[in-house]
Specification:
With about 300 residues, this protein is α/β, with parallel strands linked by helices. It has eleven helices and ten strands.
C-alpha cells in the first residue's frame, strides 16, 4: 500500500527534477552562446555587447599575461576612455566601478608578467564610487565557483541581457555598445547636456579609512612598479556641480591631497570642458569632451610630490 502511494510521487518528483535540470541547462547554454558581457571571449567587431559585467575583470587579467595594455579604472564617467587615447592598447574596467578596495585588490592579485605588461594606469576619483555597495571583492571574479554562483544568482538578468544582445545585433537598432576592451562606443553622437539634474545630496560619498588605505596602495603600486598612475576627478557640467554637497566635496579633495602623490581636479567652476558641446548629459562627457579631458591630463603631468593638485 505505502509503496503504491509513494511510487507515483517519486516518479513525478524525478520528472520535475529532470525537467528543471534540462531547462536550467538550456538557459545556461543560451547565455554561454549569447555571451552578453563578453566574458567568454565571444565579443568581436561584428557581434556587439551592450552591457558590462565585473566578471570580465578576470578575462582582462588573463589578457595581461600575453599583451601590453594601459589600464583604466572608474565608472560610467570613464567608460569612453579607450585605446585611441593611449600609445597602444587599453583595457577599460568601468564594470569594476572604481571602488579603491576593488582596484587595489585587483592590482595586488597580478603576477610579475602581468605587472610588467601594464604601460600606465588611469584612475577616476568618482564621487560616489566609495560607497560600500560599490565594492567588488577580488574573490568574486577570481574563483571559478564564485563566478558560477554570481551568474546563477543573476540568471534572470543574464537571460534578459542575452536576449537584448541578440535582438540589437539582429536589428542594428542601438546607439552604443561595449567593445572588446571594455570601453563604450556611441554609434551616433549624443548630446543632452540640458537634461534635468536630480540627485540625492548624499551622492558625494565619504571616503572611509579602508578606502584611504586602498588609495594609498594604488599609489604605492605605481611607485613600486614604476608605472605612471593618473588620478583625476570627473568633469561635470556646471548645473550638476551646483547641487553637490560642497563640504563633502572638499573633504574628498583633502583626502586626495593627503593620500595621493597628486591628482587632476576638474571639480571646479569654469574648467576648460564646462561647455554643453562636451557633455552627453550633465554628468557624463561625450566623445569630444573625453578626448579633451584625457589630453589635458596627459599634457599636465604632475612632476613632483609638492605639486599635489592641478585645478582646471
Amino acid at each position: 500500500m505505502s509503496f503504491r502511494l509513494i511510487s507515483p510521487f517519486s516518479r513525478y518528483l524525478r520528472l520535475v527534477i529532470i525537467a528543471g535540470v534540462v531547462i536550467l541547462g538550456c538557459m545556461i547554454g543560451f547565455i554561454a552562446l549569447a555571451d552578453p558581457y563578453g566574458e567568454f571571449g565571444l565579443v568581436n567587431t561584428r557581434i556587439k555587447s551592450f552591457s558590462a559585467s565585473p566578471l570580465s575583470t578576470q578575462s582582462f587579467a588573463d589578457r595581461l599575461r600575453h599583451g601590453r595594455y594601459a589600464l583604466i579604472f572608474g565608472t560610467s564617467r570613464s567608460s569612453l576612455i579607450s585605446s585611441r587615447h593611449f600609445h597602444g592598447e587599453a583595457l577599460n574596467f568601468h564594470a569594476l566601478y572604481g571602488h579603491p578596495r576593488s582596484v587595489s585588490e585587483f592590482l595586488r592579485s597580478l603576477g610579475p608578467q602581468q605587472i610588467e605588461n601594464i604601460t600606465e594606469i588611469f584612475y577616476l576619483l568618482d564621487l560616489h564610487a566609495y560607497a560600500e555597495e560599490n565594492y567588488t571583492p577580488q574573490v568574486m571574479y577570481g574563483k571559478f565557483w564564485s563566478r558560477t554562483l554570481y551568474r546563477l544568482r543573476r540568471i534572470g538578468t543574464y537571460l534578459g541581457d542575452s536576449a537584448n544582445k541578440i535582438w540589437k545585433n539582429f536589428t542594428g537598432r542601438y546607439q552604443m555598445y561595449v567593445n572588446m576592451n571594455g570601453s563604450t562606443t556611441f554609434s551616433t553622437p549624443k548630446n543632452q547636456c540640458n537634461l534635468p539634474v536630480r540627485i540625492d545630496r548624499n551622492w558625494v560619498a565619504e571616503i572611509d579609512e579602508k578606502s584611504r588605505v586602498a588609495l594609498s596602495q594604488i599609489r604605492s603600486f605605481g611607485e613600486k612598479n614604476e608605472k605612471s598612475v593618473h588620478f583625476a576627478t570627473p568633469a561635470l557640467y556646471r548645473p550638476f556641480l551646483d547641487i553637490l554637497d560642497k563640504k563633502k566635496l572638499d573633504a574628498q579633495k583633502q583626502v586626495y591631497r593627503d593620500v595621493l602623490g597628486g591628482f587632476h581636479d576638474f571639480l571646479v567652476y569654469d574648467h576648460p570642458l564646462d561647455a554643453c558641446e562636451n557633455f552627453k548629459d550633465p554628468s557624463h562627457l561625450n566623445e569630444k569632451g573625453t578626448d579633451e579631458y584625457v589630453r589635458l591630463i596627459k599634457s599636465k603631468a604632475l612632476h613632483s610630490p609638492s605639486q599635489n593638485q592641478i585645478s582646471y
